[in-house]
Design brief:
Layout lengths: L2 H26 L4 E7 L10 E8 L6 E3 L12 E5 L2 E5 L7 E6 L5 H12 L22 E5 L2 E5 L5 H13 L4 E6 L6
Parallel strand pairs: 5-9
Antiparallel strand pairs: 1-2, 2-3, 4-5, 6-8, 6-9, 7-8
Amino acid sequence: MDVVSMIAGLRDDYQAQFAGFVDIQVRAHPEGAPEVKLRLSEGSGLLHDLFCVDFLVTGDGAPEAIELHPEPRPAFEPFDGGVAGVRVRFEDLQWDDATFRYAGGAPDPESLALWFLTWFDPHELRGEAANDEDADLSGVIHSVSLTDGAMHVDFGTAPPEAFWELLQVLADGGVAAVTVGAGKGDET
């Protein structure tokens, strides 16, 4: 199996569903906006307490967050590979629901923070050029949470490079083995 094509396909499938979701929400809620970044209260369980909501409806009353629930991708047979010198087992993977379980090391906190800030882009420093092919979308990850030996990532509209760079961060932290799968549950 060509893992690079598989990851790109996962992202492209999610991106198409997300773009359709945004079109529907904009028509239904013209006062709303896609991919709104929020700082949650301290201790939210999310990295840097930052979250990018799929669509935020504003206007009369309290704001309402609307999340896309994409159609799941067909399951595939788990397979093993190597990325950046790390043994990687690929299991059931969803672009907005990726779990990285790791052993034999841990991501360096500074490297992980840099990766997160690059791909979450809280200050929108990368601009539209970062996502030219899909200029209506921001090209950012939507959330990251950490638990003992695992990381849960909603890659949002980020390109596949965010996925590969995260594996590199894990490798640089001395992680020996990673299992990539799905199933984070709700963290917000």
